[in-house]
Amino acid sequence: MVIEKIKKSIILELNKSLDDVIRSIFKEIKNKNYLTVEKKFIINEVYYKFIHKQYTEQYEPFYYLFWEKISEEEIEKRYKSALNTISNKPTLIKSKIENLINNKKSITNIKQYYIDKAILFNNYVKEQEKDKEHLQIINIKNDKIKSFGIDYYFNLINCLYDRLNNYCHLVIVFNEDYYINKWELISKISVFCENFKSEINFKPFIKIQEKLEQDLQENLKSNKYINFNKDLQNEILNFYSAISYGFYFKDLFISNDSKTNILVLQKIQYDESIVFCPNCFSDKVGGNSYTKLLQKSFECSNDNCIAKNRDLRGKRYTFLSAKIQNKKFDLKEKDYVPKEIYKSFRRDIFDKKVDILEHLIYLYTFTNENILLYDMDINIEKYNTLERNIYNYESYLYDDKNINSFFKLPIIRIMISVIKSIKESKEDYIVTDDILIKNANSTDFLYSLNKNQFNIAITSPPYYNARDYSKWENMILYFIDMVINAKYLYDKIEDNGYYVYNISDIVAMDNIYVKSKMCKKRQMLSSYSVVFFSLLGF
DNA sequence: ATCGACAATATGTCACCTGG
DNA sequence: CCAGGTGACATATTGTCGAT
């Protein structure tokens, strides 16, 4: 039954491309009024010939209408004649169409053709990825933070990065009572993961790099709460000298007893090396745009490849999409995610009783892939039935030369510099009433308020580009505004006062390094807010 | 069963660049 | 100089959920 379904979808797919080739001819001649009525009629006939061949049942009425009395030879002849009528179409396009048709004829077993190609591709992927890990899971231990500080984990993440296959996942588990604030720990680690590497060769960025620098300078110069200075200017240059990258934030799960948090990150590293076409396995491929920041996509330019769209552009894909699409021909029982696991991780909150490791393995790996566990207190034997190569590490050679690496991150450096440049506030507003309801710009108000007149502040701040009233050019400018506001609040609130700040992550374009859809992602507004506010003293 | 919301992915197309 | 290849970006389609 399943095989039949796959077969049907393959045949439909194959026919669609041929069908669409003919459609494209139609589109082409539609506006060419010089074609005679006869020539147009011939093209019509050719069109329905194709339709008839591929979709006998569906198009039967058309078949009888157009082809009842015409022989195969006649059809061939007219087809060639139709091709000739498209005299304005470049020869290249014609040959591409002919190639497609010849190729179609030579394939007798369509299903087998696809399976063969997919197996070739799957073996190629396996060969590429065999020496590295497909999933890394780090369990954050309180005793290690106590002995070495958070730097221990910054260092570890850095060391493990090169061993992880590109586009694969790093999962960080927090399930202890830490001696420092857990949310600050999660925030710092997630901010570090997004920014600890730097890339200078990304073309779309290089093109607008100077403009980005200037825009940020202009913006800060015109900000009435900032004293623009040389140091800030240098930090802007430093910030825009490269793209900060590392991992791509996917999600942060929390258990329903709020004891366990699971941070899921995906490695996306700039890699221009050629990926074979997942359809024809040709290495004759061109580039295409980027689907995500730093994630290259390709286009097959093999004339014989069947996967052409109606404008005869080739199959477009990334390493990851190609891997996933071909995997469907080579699935084992343990590659299927059990329904209950699939459901339980759809939401950000999961049941504390679930076997987290089993879930993660099913969700983020295929069979025979390599999984590195770090400090997971489990018995690996238990997971043998999942048919993955799992190994558990408990320690690595601690190398302290990267100490304080967090404060070397460009994003942290620039924010420290911004904080230093914020103007001193005034003290010329004393609240005399017990209750004051004030309608004002909160930054302006806090700027002129006298100190120590309140000890709690509660806000649901604007979320970056979530509403019409909360638009910023990019996320850096958003955080600068939020930090200025929080700085004045910090100055004015009583010592040991509380600031309640309601924030969460959001899907938006950060517009930091490029200004297009490729920077649309889940943005960690919460982690960045926590980290930046802690720089202020919170 | 159907629908709206939303995210992910596939496909369409503008316009720049390049090489003959 | 200009066709056409293709990088970048836009738009369409698909898939999934919960609500009804």
Characterize the structure shown.
By secondary structure, this protein is of the alpha/beta class. It folds into 3 domains: 2-106, no CATH class; 131-412, Rossmann fold; 424-536, no CATH class. 44% of the residues lie in helices and 16% in strands. The strands form 5 sheets. The protein has a 7-stranded mixed beta sheet with strand order 10-5-6-2-1-11-12. Helix 17 links the parallel strand 13 (456-459) and strand 14. The termini are far apart. The chain binds a DNA duplex (20 and 20 nucleotides) through residues 90, 92, 203-204, 286-291, 299, 301, 309-311, 313, 316, 321, 346, 507, 516-518.
Topology:
Layout: H1 2-30, H2 37-54, H3 60-67, H4 72-85, H5 91-106, H6 110-129, E1 133-139, H7 142-148, H8 151-161, E2 164-174, H9 182-195, E3 197-199, H10 203-221, H11 230-239, E4 243-245, E5 247-255, E6 261-267, E7 285-292, E8 295-300, E9 316-317, H12 319-327, H13 339-344, E10 349-350, H14 356-364, E11 370-374, E12 389-393, H15 410-421, H16 442-448, E13 456-459, H17 475-492, E14 498-501, E15 506-509, E16 520-523, H18 525-536
The structure holds a DNA duplex (20 and 20 nucleotides).
In summary, what is this structure?
This protein is of the alpha/beta class. Helices cover 44% and strands 16% of the residues.
> Strands of the biggest beta sheet: in what spatial order?
10-5-6-2-1-11-12
Q: What general form does the structure show?
A: globular
* SS-based class: alpha/beta
Low-confidence stretches: 1-22, 24-72, 74-108
CATH architecture of the largest domain: 3-Layer(aba) Sandwich
Strand content: 15-25%
Taking the sheet with the most strands, its summary is: 7 strands, mixed
What is the fold named in CATH at topology level of the largest domain? Rossmann fold
Find the count of extended strands (DSSP E, 2+ residues). 16
Rounded radius of gyration (Å):
30 Å
Q: Helical region count?
A: 18
CATH class of the largest domain: Alpha Beta
